């Protein structure tokens, strides 16, 4: 068998629950938001473009410094030099720890205050998920990002789900500055609120997740420079001519359509599911994206 | 920076908590068990070998039928033909749905009773995890497998964590027979107790997880046959000469060392962790494996 049914949107026998694809398709135009070019990065690899939405609400100092590095073309001709199976892909200057070989960071700062979590307030949207979480007392989505909250301390942080982009650092909590980034390709919730999250991959995850793995004994860092994936360039979308932009939209996570998707994911009335999960974990839901229909062709 | 500290076992400042690697290293010989050759599969791909431990306790009919298929060389010259990002890699005969082109299943059965969960009893070891779960009321490890339990119904099932190998099927719950298998490479808890789990990848996950992804719109099935990864052969370890076996051992999940690993993963006293997770999810822990020292060289 082809096993296509493993995820196919087979309709319910009698219950007539629409498939997730059809729920997304029925979303109103106002339920989609376009990525802000001033907070979107394009990382061009030999096989394609990775699009990252930045998270200035959560880590303003890190995002500002990262933009400085990008605008000064720090990442051009660096590489993805670490891919640890079921954990992260990491990129930047592989020689950044070697003062003799490290690239100049130009006008960017070398140390930043830790921005691992922040206080939350009424200005932030938050769509809670109903099934709890192993690592936090509340989880849900804020402005498209998977987030966790602690009502006791009124702190919030972005969870390390698939596609989350964080700022690597050394043991010194101020040593992260954005010159070394990682994207989550596996299980990484254990590092929640211990690193600054800078954004989230919106498009192009397979360009990172399907890279060859480095040796686990060396936490995924490639043994040979020839194994690295070159980074051609990283640019802020706002600095790229409109004709060369991606024009991506993300479904608003405070929209009725998003709530319908959460419900459908939890209760799967598809005929394939004999015994629907009835629950949904924070990282078990990917926020839908699309090309802005005004630019689709 | 190299960002090695992201997972490095930096020792505690004052608390002297050993790293996970050193905890594993200190395990007694009796805390390791060797894989049973009668329940271990070797899947040989062009780039290396994937080792799968079978789970006859959980799905005896599926495992028996899978062994029949393997012993009759059903999988030789089939392929990995579906890789859906953040979900599964799937293999077998890509033409199995086409009666004119499908490979013969020989003496194997074409339909099997669903074995999606089973009753648990005192014969099964179970090491519970203390931090709960989004999808089940109890989770832990049984005989090396990540499992969930429902004390109300006394049913247990293997969870779809990274590396879990399941039996694909069509909508008909009896249509899975083991001729099409998948390994979890991402988030897949949502299909728990809706498919029969046949085993777990013990070694070689990167050979599957780093394969190019198929198009999500086609649930990861490659558009062109040339994209498939050929399967050279699949053999039961017991049918392979001893000199060509892998001699792998898995840490017993009911051992004191395993309990120490769970504790270390939850409380990470490494200097890197400013704010340790304090919790551990079922799929957040990979069971340690090693080459039997009697065969290491």
From TrEMBL, chains A, B:
Transmembrane segments: none
Superkingdom to which the source organism belongs: Bacteria
Key words, A-Z: Isomerase, Rotamase
InterPro entries, alphabetized: Cyclophilin-like_dom_sf (IPR029000), Cyclophilin-type_PPIase_dom (IPR002130), E_coli_cyclophilin_A-like (IPR044665)
Enzyme class: isomerase
GO molecular function, one term: peptidyl-prolyl cis-trans isomerase activity
Stored SUPFAM superfamilies: Cyclophilin-like
Span of domain PPIase cyclophilin-type: 46-236
EC number: 5.2.1.8
Keyword Membrane belongs to the record: no
Protein name: peptidylprolyl isomerase
